[in-house]
Structures are given as C-alpha cells and as structure tokens.
Amino acid sequence: MPQNLSGRSAVITGVTSGIGYALTRRLLADGVAVAGVARDPRLLAVAAEQWGDRFHPVLADLSVPQAVDDCVAEIVERFPRVDVLVNNAADCVFDRPSSLPADRWRRLLETNLLSPIALIRGLLPSMAQAGHIINVSSVTTRHLSSARYGPYALTKAAMEHFTTALRLELAPSRTKISLVTLGLVDTPIYDKVTDFRRTRLDLAASVPHWLSPDDVCDTIHWMLTRPAHVVVGDALLLPLHQAR
Question: To the nearest whole number, what is the mean pLDDT of the chain?
C-alpha cells in the first residue's frame, strides 16, 4: 500500500526552478509542509507568495558554509520534525579540470557535495530515525564523453559514494536513503553553464526529447510513497535515445 504523505514535512533545495520547483508543487498538493531552499531572493519571494502558508522559504547560498549552517538552524526552528530531505540543488561547470580556477572548484564542491552533507548532518537528528533522504546525481559519474564534464562529475561521484556509506551506516535505523541518477533533463541549469551552447545543440540533435522536471518529480514522488518496508535505493532515469 503506497504511503500517504499528507501531514509530513520536507526540505527541498533548489526550489525556484526545474526539478525542485516541480517537486515542491507536487508535495504541497499532497498536503506536505515544505521548507524550500534557494539563493535568489526575488524568485523565492514569488514562490512564497504563490504557495502559501505550508511553504516556508529559506534563503541560502549553498556555496557558502555559514549560509548552510544558518539554513539548517532556520529549518530546525521551523520544523522540529523533518520527514523528507531532497538534495536537489546543483552547480554545474563545463571546463577542463586543469584550468578550472581554485575558487570555482571550491564553489562547485561546496554546492554539490559539502552542503548536502552539512544538511544531512544537521537535519538527521530531526528525522527521528524514520525519515527519507534522497540525493540527486548524474550519469556523468558513469561515463565521461568529454573531459569538460569532469569537475561536475567528480562532485556527483563523491556524493554517490557518500550516499552508499550513509545507507550502510543507517541501515539499522528506519531512515531510508535513496539516490536518483539522471540523464539529460530540460532545466534552466544549462542556461547558466559557460561554453555549453554548442554541446547542448549537439546533444539535442541525438536526443531530441529530454526528461522534463515533472518526469523526475514523478519518480521521486513514487520513491517517497513506497510502503514503509520498501526502500528504492537507486533509480536511473534516462530519456529515450540516451544510452548512457
């Protein structure tokens, strides 16, 4: 029997666009209270006005450690119990590993790896050993078609290993740990990636119809609603024509 999510509380990062936006909308419709984390104050204010009282906006730049600590403190104060954490927000670069500046490496690592770890560490005590943590990864960890995917893939590969280790650590508890690995998804993140336009057009030529944020949202929602004794540990989601 699928679980009813009504009355539960969730923390989702990257809620003002793409997958995070779609998932927040879906969970609010299910009766879930959502703490939504984003770094753009204007977009977050629009989201808060749109989604009403069960949505709590949390302004935080996840590339800044102190901002992440403040984010955790705000969430814990607002939600004494957290049932779901979805680490969805990501930073992306398309650059040669040897030429990516050190400060850009740090920002990438903070956003994609260290901030999710900090959120998990900070919120786990509020999950009462019965929550569900879902981390979002990428197929670039499995196949590098270009060295320029390397920096992004490195951060996601590290997150995958952390997820596996966390699952082993928390297996005796009732906390579920899941990983969603995604192929090409049509989200605004690609619009922010420098020097990616030509590659994006080439990818679109071979894979015309990318996954939509709602496709990913449906998968995460399905994972969250499995019976209490069922854990979907890993899910790989690809659009038609993307082989790897």
Answer: 96
Q: Write the DSSP string, the chain.
A: -PPP-TT-EEEEESTTSHHHHHHHHHHHHTT-EEEEEES-HHHHHHHHHHH-TTEEEEE--TTSHHHHHHHHHHHHHH-SS--EEEE-------S-TTTS-HHHHHHHHIIIIIHHHHHHHHHGGGGTT--EEEEEEEGGGT--SSGGGHHHHHHHHHHHHHHHHHHHHHTTSS-EEEEEEE--B--GGGGGSTT-HHHHHHHHHHS-SPBPHHHHHHHHHHHHTS-TT----EEEE--TT---
What is the mean pLDDT of the segment spanning 51-76?
A: 98
Radius of gyration of the chain (CA): 17
pTM exceeds cut of 0.70? yes
Q: What is the pLDDT of residues 19-32, one digit of tens each?
A: 999 999 999 999 99
Mean pLDDT check: name the lowest of 10-14, 190-194, 227-231.
190-194
